[in-house]
């Protein structure tokens, strides 16, 4: 019986240690965050010299693009920190109180909600940008009625998915069975 218990214990320890196989993926997400930062800075450097000559509509589109990149970076950071802390190991960072309040408190359910909320926001900004470009010949050639229809359908799909996920979490929390 002891051999069976030892085999089971080692097997479970191996399974538990396998969570570290995902750690390189989180490092890859950190590299992706750096990539988004470079793209944000590249766009900023490109558009700043044009600020005195751009139209207000163009300025709004530029700002929406920068917000879009920032939301994607926020999403990436939430997935990076919350995912690592939920699935690999707690971050033992002693940095004098600079740690964001949400770190260590976002469980898998909260992570899903933040993820879908970010996706809906990014989708909404993308759709808003396309709507603002209606009437521009270059944009109309690229995004016709069919493309705008599908962008709207996809956005509404994200919204409905988010509402259904929130409903499922609410039902699960209030069912008494956890």
UniProtKB/TrEMBL annotation:
Sequence intervals crossing the membrane: 20-40, 60-84, 148-171
Principal location: membrane
One Pfam family, short name: UPF0114
Superkingdom of origin: Bacteria
Intracellular or extracellular location(s): Cell membrane
Keyword annotations of the record: Cell membrane, Membrane, Transmembrane, Transmembrane helix
Membrane topology: Multi-pass membrane protein
Stored InterPro entries: UPF0114, UPF0114_bac
Keyword Membrane: yes
Record bears the keyword Nucleotide-binding: no
Signal peptide extent: none
Family, as annotated: Belongs to the UPF0114 family.
Name under which the protein is recorded: UPF0114 protein RGD00_20080
